[in-house]
Every structure is written in C-alpha cells, then in structure tokens.
From TrEMBL:
PANTHER family: TRANSLOCON-ASSOCIATED PROTEIN SUBUNIT ALPHA, TRANSLOCON-ASSOCIATED PROTEIN, ALPHA SUBUNIT
Protein name per its UniProtKB record: Translocon-associated protein subunit alpha
Keywords of the record: Calcium, Endoplasmic reticulum, Membrane, Signal, Transmembrane, Transmembrane helix
UniProt key word Membrane: yes
Domain notes: Shows a remarkable charge distribution with the N-terminus being highly negatively charged, and the cytoplasmic C-terminus positively charged.
Gene Ontology CC annotations of this record: endoplasmic reticulum membrane
Localisation: Endoplasmic reticulum membrane
Family: Belongs to the TRAP-alpha family.
UniProt KW Isomerase keyword: no
Amino acid sequence: MASFNHFWFLSFALLLLASPLLQVARCHTESDETVQATEEASDIGIVGDDAEDFGDESFPTAPGIDTICVFPKNSARLVTAGEETELLVGVKNNGESSLKVIAIKASVHLGYDHRLLVQNLTTQVFNNGKVPASAQATFPYLFAVSKFLQPGNFDLVGTIVYEIDQNPYQSTFYNGTIEVVEAGTFLSIESVFLVTLGIALLALLGIWIHGQIQNLSKKTKRAPKVEVGTRSTDASLDEWLQGTAYTQSQVNKSKKKK
C-alpha cells in the first residue's frame, strides 16, 4: 500500500506540472472501466477572492482524500513580494462519494513559531469544483504576499476546503518553507553571499599575483658595476717585477733614449 501511494504521488506530480487546467482524468473503477473527461479553466467556477468568509473555522479531514501541491516552473519556491505566485493543488478522491471543492486558502507564518501569523492570504472560492469518486483533479491557486514583507524564509500553510455529502472537510496540501524576495531581485540571499565571496577571493588573488610580479622584477635587476682604479694595481705590479729581466730591459731602453 505504501509503494502504491508513493507511485501515485509521483505520477500525480507529473500531471500537475503538465496541466494548469482542471482535469478529471482516467477514473479507474473496480471493473477497470476508464472514463476520461477534461474541463476548461473557465468551467471550474472560480468565484473570486474572499467571496465567503471562512474565518478561523477548522474542519476535519475526510478519509480517502489525498492532496499534493506543485509550484509550476518555480521549484525553488521563490515568492516575489507584492506579485502573484501560482501553485497547483491536486486532489485524489479515493472515497465512494463525489467531492465538491469549496475554496482554497493559505497563510504565512514565522518558521520558528507557527503561532506567530505574518499574513492571511487570499481565499479563492470555487462554484463548480467537483471531483467524482475514484478521480483526481487539479485546481490553480494564486496568492500574493505583502509588498512590505521583509525578504527571508517563511512557512506557508495551504488548506483546501471541500464538501462530501454536504458535510464540510478540509485538508492541508502544503506546510513548508517559501523564500520571499524583493521585486526585481533575481538573486537569493545565498546567491548574493556566494557572489560577494567570489569577488573577494578574486581580489585577494590579484593582490598576491601583483606582489609576486614585483618581487620577480626586483630580482632581475642587475647589480651596479664597481669601478676599480688602475694606479694601485700598476704600482703593485711594478714592485713585483723589480729585479727581473723585464725591469732591466726597461732600464736599458731608457738609457738609449738619453
């Protein structure tokens, strides 16, 4: 049973990514008969925002109802403050009765304490959100956090409210982290830190290379030549040659000149 549920979640996630429209697809019955029906987005009966005030009222979760949530084209779950973000909510009705989706709502909380509410988000109401027994469907949900919300990590809690046999129920389809960024900001905090660290390392490398080049140029400079006088050398040479045939020939030459 666990492996079957795991397989269904994987296949249903692919379905959510592939179709932003409400789909009731391939409803398998016990006799293996397949019924396939597709409804356009205009047929799901989206009423609008806050058409009905649900307040803080909480309902139980109906047995046999599975939900899943996907952020299409936004696997990093980045939410730009003040701009709309889309997510898709998948519902699989494993029960025996038809299910009617009433609304989808969500709220933002501080990550370290869910009791600290940051913002109640839009409540999106549906008029024609039916999911037959043994069927699955996808519902779009648009929300926007306050443009004044400080960038950082927060927890998003999303809830889908539905009716079965005129009895209200609800299921939490998402309870996890989102990262809020400023409008026009394409880099996350971690990315900015990594870019800054890389620039600093490149600057240090440049300074080190410059120092090595300077040291190398100093070593290659030639040492200045020292001139040696000739007088002392000539005098010592004359003293060393005294008494030799060379000095006698020099004396004879000087006498002949006289």
